[in-house]
Amino acid sequence: MARIIYVEDDELVGALVQQVLTDAGHLIGVIGHGTLAYETIAFKKPDLVILDRGLPGMQGVDILSALRRLPGLYLTPILMLTAKGGEDAVEEAMEAGANDYLVKPFEPEELVRRVDEVLKNNLFRRE
Prior knowledge:
49% of the residues lie in helices and 18% in strands. It has helices spanning 11-23, 34-44, 60-68, 87-96, 108-126; strands at residues 3-7, 27-31, 48-51, 78-82, 100-103.
């Protein structure tokens, strides 16, 4: 079980991801505003962060870059989950420090597999 913060401004998508990951055994909170999410992540220090790109306040890639500069959070795994596909978008996120990138729409099983994989890889990296 991991503590996850999902940053998503679309309430329906947020509820879907929350249900899928809760069913997979994780604790997940959804935050719909980028700046509030950044502050919450910095305070709560979750096991995993899932970020959308387009958000009110701070954009997802900006949150990602800022988190990578914070001591105590720079190793926190971050999965981008966004509707923006394309090589440039993926490359930008990976260069900013994302551990993985998944494009919406997605299959729930694929999301669970990616979350579990990112968490597992992060565990090995910290040991």
